[in-house]
Design goal:
heterodimer; A: 58 residues; 2 helices; B: 189 residues; 7-stranded mixed β-sheet; 24% helix
């Protein structure tokens, strides 16, 4: 007998539409943002984390 | 806090862009998470896909999702509730030294998808969302500031590592930002 494995559960249409609507609402607010990007002081940020650091890239 | 070991990653292929894709090509990798059982929770073993898409100015965007969700439009914002978020992102970041070896002037960008909760009809804020806070902490832990200048776009939960091989990283940051705005069509940004 063949075993059938469930790969991914299909979402009901209503759920897909609700997701789409919420996502679109968020995208509208995204258009209002004028983020220029802020330079990060990594050393200062690390001091706040108080952890042992294990750099993969110097 | 970040004692998580990365999962073993396997390279799958170098993929060409499809219709409507704005990247030059994508490097695709896979890895499997570990299943575990605790008295409170059962976590299944999941296959994840990592995509590193190469854009203009030698910038790779880093994306990942659960392989079984590849056709879902919410694959980047879906929660698996497996409590693996930190280790999964550590796994993605562990690819950076390898990529830098092959592409020494590469820069990297990532955007943290907001969680959308359909049941409660709520979408997480764009500003410094939960995934972004985890990703940023992982980056602080593993990526230094000698190779990259770090830029944070908190309002949109995005982070950019500009390679210091560029003499003017601020200028390169602006060029990359402009290039992404053109690709992703954010309107009046």
């Amino acid at each position: 007998m063949k075993t059938v494995q469930l790969v991914s559960k299909a979402r009901p249409k209503s759920e897909r539409l609700r997701w789409k609507s919420l996502n679109e609402e968020s995208n509208i607010s995204l258009r209002k943002i004028t983020s220029l990007g802020k330079k990060v002081n990594v050393e200062e940020a690390r001091q706040k984390l108080s952890s042992n650091f294990n750099l993969l890239v110097p | 806090m970040f004692d998580s070991k990365p999962y073993n990653i396997q390279f799958i292929q170098k993929a060409s862009p499809g219709i409507g894709d704005a990247f030059k090509y994508a490097l695709i990798y896979k890895f499997f998470t570990q299943a575990y059982n605790t008295p409170d929770k059962v976590s299944e073993r999941l296959k994840y896909i990592i995509r590193l898409e190469l854009h203009e100015h030698d910038v790779f965007t880093l994306k990942y999702y659960v392989a079984r969700d590849r056709k879902r439009d919410d694959k980047y914002s879906k929660l698996t509730n497996n409590s693996h978020a930190q280790r999964i992102f550590v796994t993605c970041v562990s690819l950076l030294p390898q990529i830098l070896h092959e592409y020494p002037s590469a820069s990297f960008a990532f955007n943290a998808s907001r969680t959308i909760d359909i049941r409660n009809n709520k979408a997480e804020s764009l500003n410094e969302n939960q995934r972004f806070r985890i990703y940023r902490a992982v980056v602080f832990h593993f990526i230094g500031d000698k190779t990259f200048e770090h830029y944070s776009f908190e309002e949109v939960s995005s982070y950019l590592l500009v390679n210091r091989k560029h003499s003017n990283t601020d200028k390169m940051k602006d060029l990359i930002r402009e290039s992404f705005l053109n690709i992703y069509d954010f309107g009046d940004l």
